[in-house]
Amino acid sequence: MTKVLLDTSFILTAIRNKLDFPEELILKGHSIFIPKEVLSEIERIKNSTKSLKVRSEAELALKMIHSEAHKEISCPGKYVDSGIKNFLKDNPDFVLATVDAKLKRSVKNRKIIIRNKKKLELQ
Fold it and tell me: At 6, which CATH number?
């Protein structure tokens, strides 16, 4: 069973593109791990002054995440991305799910991306 670590950009992009990512990941035999810092970041977006569309996407993301089976982990760092990078450096068996180009380049682990706004692809 592959352990998949979800990033904020992946979660919000999947919601925007109407992908049921938790179900698809679980059906493919992956176990989902979400950093507490990512959940906090999505919560901040939901309560921010950003556009109504972005806030509602964040709210839907939180509802979807809490309705599916996942494990919460801690990736402490000054920024969420730096915490994720440090965690993945220590845990090479994890796969990173992200659409953040800078984060993808800085991590050596395998990655899951969203291809053509419709499907998940393991790289």
Answer: 3.40.50.1010
